[in-house]
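Lesson 9: reading folded outputs for more than one chain in a single document. The general rule is that every protein is listed as its sequence immediately followed by its structure tokens, and records are never interleaved. Here is the first one.
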Amino acid sequence: MHGTFRIHGDAHQITIPVQVRMTDGKAAATAHFTIPYVKWGMKNPSTFVLRVSENVEIEAATGALP
């Protein structure tokens, strides 16, 4: 899937690989992608004690298959 990801007032082009499965006329989709929020101009909230990645991993799913 390709489109525009809008966050904090800025738009970023992104391509997200989506896996779609069909069973008995029902669809389920899953996707995993990375948001490089620091590269996109947002502040890294790390502190002296707390360290976080400069990217956020997103996992999304919709639909339900048995």
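And here is the second record, again sequence then tokens.
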Amino acid sequence: MKVLVTGAAGFTGTWMMRYLSNLAGVSPTGLSHKLTGTSRANTPHQDFLVADLLNRDQIFSEISGLCPDAIIHLAGRTHGTLDVLMQTNVVGTKNLLEAGSAANPDCRILVVSSSAVYGNQANAPINESAPLQPLNEYGISKMAQDAYARMYYHINGAEVCIARPFNLIGPDQSESFVCGKIVKQVIEIERKKKNVLEIFETRSSRDFLDVRDAVRGYWALVSHPEFSNNCSGESFNMGSGSVYSIMDVILLIEGITGRHFEVKFPDIPPRVVVSTQQSNNEKITALTGWIPEIPFEESLRQMLDTARKKKI
């Protein structure tokens, strides 16, 4: 099975490529808008295409040449202006869907959206029928991406499925995400490069899912024997099913490291728009049997161990 992974040089994409490389009968190819030496070092002995999702002709040419059996669409932006986010996350997805379907009408395409589409849903676990009410520009762009993928399925009968992961964590996560930011600062404190954790707030709570569990879930959907009947046109939540506040994260890290960390907040604390999010995984579990396997504390422990081996 030939599988194309977009965003293959990124955090999730790197783990996705590693996972697919260990599966019998699967031939993964990564796609990235640029490929550095570090990217190749993280995913050796694999094929890569370099192309810009916003360059329609280039994407059509590259995907036509590959003619994949499946596409796992991880590429996208999490930060930027609304114009930039909409271009990358919506127009880029449009080009990919059209190129994939043109190359192979039976190509299975998994569009990876985000729990950001749900916004604030009070304290109940969120299922896929919850209203989409994003509360930031990234969430708006992912809601539009989500809607375009569903529209493309309904109009064209394409084999398109949507995954909505909650907050991903894991080794090598960048500091642009809260757990990656905390881990980086903890290592800097251990190396005596700083004295306190600088955190915006500790009140909000999130459902944190290890990226290695996430990539298993993506594959469980893409490889489902009844993809056309049970996955196409559907959306699937993926989370741990548990909720931790930012303070819980810090306390767990204190337990792992055996030391206390002073926390410094900004003079003007930010408004907490989304107080909590928790995933209801019943739909994907019922269909595929997928469940998360890596405990949150173990994810944090491995993030710390990996960061300690790097020069920061």
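What the second record shows: The CA atoms of residues 78 and 138 lie 6 Å apart.
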